[in-house]
Amino acid sequence: MAEERTGRVDFEPVGLGFEQATDIQFVPGALESAVVLQKTGTARVATLPRPSAGRPAAAKASPVLFEVEVRDRSELGLLGLAFSPKFRENGLFYVNYNPENGDMRTRVSEWYVPPSRIGKETAKERRVILEVTQPYANHDGGGLVFGPDGMLYIGLGDGGSGGDPKDHGQNMGSLLGKMLRIDVDRKDGGREYGIPKDNPFIATKGARPEIWALGLRNPWRYSFDPKGRLIAGDVGQDLWEEISLVERGANLGWKHREGAHCFSPSEGCRTAGLADPLFEYDRALGISVTGGFVYTGKRIPSLAGRYLFGDFATGRLWALEVPDSVRRVPARLLGRFSYAFSTFGRDAEGEIYAADFGPGGIYRLVAR
């Protein structure tokens, strides 16, 4: 479904030396400051210069916001961060990582730093919000995003290995293979968080009430668009990568389907009640999707309102127009670049940034 390359875009370096970057989150109220997570456990506050405003930020010169001891083999490590919608008032943010000690698990915890001291003072971990045991070292998901409703959305992969051997994706009693939605501003049921009353499976017998959507394999980067729709890149198994709308109560299909295709044809293929992806691509175009953001900036008018995403292995970058309802749409190939797109970021002006996982560069998307 990919079209011919029609883009006129490129990337300019704004940060150097941020090895194995897994997340780029701009500090609320600070246009040029972004927190860059490194998989091995360090979060740095980088000053990313505006166009023609100076030399790229260097990792060694970027202050450490915090460090955690993590398991970092395979897909484990320091994976995601989300600032509280009230960060300028409360100084809180939330982190997703895999602690080094104890059982292999995902931890989501709450951190604090005085907003006026970010980049000058080390943040402190205040409390653990949620921990989920991980049976294998891959498919952790790892993202964190606050929605326009103020709730925290936590994307978890199916727990790893291959072919979802424990069937977490469709097991409503498991948090793995799901998109979760919780309220970090209150506590109930002995938890360190609240369950929003409009979560879709609260009344479903045997279902975890945190679940917002199911049937995810490994949601690697997701974000809300200006219309409040949650869009995710879900990494496939052997054949298909997908971009999907993650709607309330949706079943994205894994492991009945990979993308829009039957995963195990010999076992029969369920299709009823499963949400199709918006876009999918096969191994001729890439092998690991990295979800991105809707472009809301002004420097590249041709991309206004388009959702941008890439492929980790091939460096391809696409843009698509998000439909009003779940249906298949084409994507426009913007180019193929020499970067391993591990994550994307978006600043307060709506401009898009990308991280190159290996060499460690942070780049801003620009018109050519």
Which SSEs are present, and which pair or pack?
Blueprint: E1 9-16, E2 21-26, E3 33-38, E4 42-47, E5 57-58, E6 64-67, E7 78-83, H1 87-90, E8 92-97, E9 105-112, E10 124-133, E11 144-146, E12 152-155, E13 178-182, E14 211-214, E15 219-224, E16 230-234, E17 240-245, E18 257-258, E19 261-262, E20 279-282, E21 289-294, E22 306-311, E23 316-321, E24 332-336, E25 341-346, E26 352-356, E27 362-367
Parallel strand pairs: 1-5
Antiparallel strand pairs: 1-27, 2-3, 3-4, 4-6, 7-8, 8-9, 9-10, 11-12, 12-13, 13-14, 15-16, 16-17, 17-20, 18-19, 21-22, 22-23, 23-24, 25-26, 26-27
> Which structural category fits the helices and strands?
mainly beta
> CATH superfamily membership, which one?
TolB, C-terminal domain
Span of the ends, CA to CA: 25 Å
Give the CATH architecture.
6 Propeller
Helix and strand pattern: EEEEEEEHEEEEEEEEEEEEEEEEEEEE
* Largest sheet descriptor: 5 strands, mixed
Tally of helical segments: 1
User: Overall 3D geometry?
Assistant: globular
Radius of gyration: 19 Å
Portion in strands = 35-45%
Q: What is the residue-averaged pLDDT? A: 95
What top-tier CATH class fits best? Mainly Beta
Strand numbers in spatial order across the main sheet: 5-1-27-26-25
Instruction: Find the CATH topology.
Output: Neuraminidase
Strand count: 27
Helix content: under 10%
Integer count of domains: 1
Query: Low-confidence parts lasting 5 or more residues at pLDDT below 50?
Result: 1-5
